[in-house]
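Input record (one chain):
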Amino acid sequence: MNRSNRVERVMAAVLGALALLVGGAAVLLHRFDVDRPVLDPVVLDWARRHLLPVRLGLLALGLLAVVLGLWWAWRAIRPERHPDLRLDDVVVTAKALAAAVRADAEQVHGVAGAKVSVVGSPALRLRLTLRHGADVTRVWRELDDRVLSRARSALGVDVLPAAVRLDLAKRERQRVR
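The corresponding structure, as predicted from the sequence alone:
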């Protein structure tokens, strides 16, 4: 129903674990030998002797970090897919299905407004704004009995996942006279 955040979570966990390991290693090195520099002189001497491979390796790591960062950023900000549905010989656009479900949802008693989008393969995301004093149980029942069942039967599917968010409309102001 929601855009998957699995890749972002895994990348953040890997970067966090790597930072934790590097930081922990630095703390341990300094804890046992306070006068010792963070970069060991033996390692620095080896790096000076092999300057070209070290520079190429660091350049490759830097380019890899830039490419991974750009890929990660693109994946996070790219638009979400709203797939059209193929039913036998007819293609139902995501906008048409969303408009039909929105029109049905706005007819439910107690609903002031609705926003609907089709996501996934297919799934619905509904955001209903309820009027002040609306019976939430009744709205929920009507939504399932009328709106979602009608969408399922129109699409010819037994299961149509739907994420529903209920918002309360602002209470109308009363003028004091």
